[in-house]
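Q: I have 65 residues here and want to know how they pack in 3D. Can you give me a structure?
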Amino acid sequence: MVFKPKLRVKVVANIFLQFSLGTDLLQFVKEFKYLGHMITDNFTDDADIQREVRNPFVKTNILRR
C-alpha cells in the first residue's frame, strides 16, 4: 500500500509504476485489512469503526431469522 504524504510539498510523484510479484501485478487500493484491522490511505480508522458498529447488527439479524 502506498500512502500519500500529508503535506503536498513532499509529493515525489503523482503516478507510481506498477509493482509486480513474480508474474502477478499488484493493485493499488485505498483500504486494506491487515490482522483484522482496516488500514486506509488517509490514516483514519473510520472504515474499521463502521465495520465494527455494523457487525453486531448483522449478527442480531442472523439470530432473528
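Q: Anything worth noting?
A: The CA atoms of residues 7 and 42 lie 12 Å apart. The chain has one domain: 8-64.
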